[in-house]
Amino acid sequence: MNVLITGGAGFIGSNLARFLLQQGVDEVRILDDLSTGSSENLNNLKVNFTEGSILNFDSLKDVTEGVDSVVHLAAIPSVPRSIVNPRASHEANTTGTLNVLEAAREVGVGHVIVASSSSVYGSNPKMPKSEFDWTRPMSPYAVSKQATEGYALAYQYSYGLKALAFRFFNVYGPGQAANHAYAAVIPKFLDAAMNGRPAQVQGDGEQSRDFTYVETVCAVIHQAVLNQTSSPDPVNLAYGTNTTLLALLDDIEAELGFRVSREHTVPRAGDVRASQADNRRVRELFPSVEPLGLKDGLAMTVEWF
Ligand code: NAD
Fold this sequence. Notes:
CATH architecture: 3-Layer(aba) Sandwich
Number of domains: 1
Bound molecules: nicotinamide-adenine-dinucleotide
Structural class: alpha/beta
Shape: globular
Strand content: 15-25%
Number of strands: 13
Order of helices and strands: EHEEHEHHEHEEHEEEHEEHEHH
Low-confidence stretches: none
CATH topology: Rossmann fold
CATH class: Alpha Beta
Number of helices: 10
């Protein structure tokens, strides 16, 4: 079995590459422009790495030729970055996805998995979030992810491509960078705590998230690749936990064994207030995957830090 991971030098992609190789996948190819990812994430991994952009259709087509599945993760993966530069976000995420699907169609690859996001639920207050609820994107990033899944699922109807769109919630774990302005909350809090700085909490800290350990995400994607799983509807890839940022800080303190001071700053534009997945579909489609709980996942992440 051969798999192409776009964005495979990033956080989720490099964990996935390692996981697929450990599970005996024959060849893992990676196409990544290293805009937010790093080739260091691929150290010691036997992958075929091509540095390039999904916006370059010719090189994309070349690396797509002959694989069994494409796992499309390449994107500018950030709400605030999309607010600063919506056009760049649209190009990488929406046009980029269309390119990935077109390349698969042209070279005859039959199975494509795409990464959407819980941000598509946006201002819809219903909890937990079911795949059949209305989406109400609040940022250009969320719109680009809605387009990502829309295109993938439309290719299923229009061209018979087997497609699967996962809505990732908040994925965390080893390899997630803390050292940039758009870092995710867990590495940001850990980095502050371990370097003696206060954790910066945007808003009151009562906003909630459904955190999923990266290896759980990899295990689900591995099953989807093995079984060439497709679906006419998106699938939440999270397990229905609901943790406020303040509760997360309590868990981090418990794991580190010392108090972490907190500093509240202004809420972030385009941020959703509460997020929790209805996890019935992911459990039904991938019954063999048992998610790792937050406390255990934090322990693994702290160990990597
Ligand atoms: P990441 O930034 O670590 O990985 C994205 C990768 O895509 C990077 O390696 C980057 O260099 C690459 N990339 C960006 N533009 C590219 C282009 N034009 N051509 C080729 N490569 C390009 O982010 P991540 O957290 O690993 O996210 C992976 C995917 O999951 C993204 O699509 C993101 O939107 C989605 N997602 C992630 C989360 C999360 O919690 N991490 C949540 C929801 C959705």
